[in-house]
Automatic annotation (TrEMBL):
PROSITE patterns: RESPONSE_REGULATORY (PS50110). It comes from Pseudogemmobacter faecipullorum. This is Response regulator. It comes from the Bacteria. The keyword tRNA-binding does not apply. The modification 4-aspartylphosphate is found at residue 53. The lineage of its organism: Bacteria, Pseudomonadati, Pseudomonadota, Alphaproteobacteria, Rhodobacterales. InterPro entries: Bact_response_regulator, CheY-like_superfamily, Sig_transdc_resp-reg_receiver. Keywords: Phosphoprotein. It holds the Pfam family Response_reg. Residues 4-120 form the Response regulatory domain.
């Protein structure tokens, strides 16, 4: 069963790049265009991992993290921030909200794929965690 990824970003270019990179590795990728859209799709998709931008309209990434973490059973789903921002204060705020990790745009495809596999326990393509 493919790894299900929910990618949330207001940039069409980034959404397209993420979808292409993830689907090219055999992942199932659902995209959302802003934070509110992402939180709604989270409930529909039940992803294995979430990738979210921080700076977005309607709901920023911190709101996304808080909304997901406040749901029942959502404390274990890894949430990765993918942002052009890289400040330690923002990273600390994201960790405090419940983020699992932080990657910087523009992303390196192999680092993204490796990170997704590591945080989900799917170290090899198609593997299911025990």
């Amino acid at each position: 069963m493919p790894l299900k990824v929910l990618a949330i970003d207001d940039s069409l270019t980034i959404r397209t790049l993420l979808q292409h990179a993830l689907e090219g590795e055999g992942f199932s990728c659902t995209i959302a265009s802003d934070g509110l859209d992402g939180v709604e799709r989270f409930a529909e998709v039940a992803p294995d991992v979430v990738i979210t931008d921080i700076n977005m309209p309607r709901m920023d990434g911190f709101g996304v993290i808080a909304a997901i973490r406040s749901g029942p059973g959502n404390t274990r789903v890894p949430i990765l921030v993918l942002s052009t921002e890289n400040g330690e204060a923002l990273k600390a705020r994201a960790r405090a909200a419940g983020a699992t990790g932080w990657l910087v745009k523009p992303f390196e495809q192999q680092l993204l794929i490796t990170t997704l596999r590591r945080v989900t326990g799917r170290l090899t393509p198609g593997a299911n965690p025990g």
